[in-house]
Amino acid sequence: RGERVVKRAGCLNCHAVEGKEKIGPNFRGLFGSKVPLEGGQSVTADEEFLRESIVDPGAKVVKGYPNVMPTFKTTLTPEEVEAVVEYLKTRK
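Above: the chain sequence. Below: its structure as tokens.
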């Protein structure tokens, strides 16, 4: 289900699943990785970070990527956000 949501919501226009980087971070290997943020901090891309990045993408901006992602807070249901998070966990 998460893969369908990712495709329908247009996530793959900016995020790659494999291959060449796009305007946003690559989904492959993202879950569980250390992510450098603008401002010098870093976080682990865990479920909480992924959820926050979907509904409030400007809260923690990944270093090297522009802060242009729209919020999906009102576009995706909480169940769809969870489905996306579960899908991202499978992209190793």
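The helical segments are 2-8, 47-55, 78-90.
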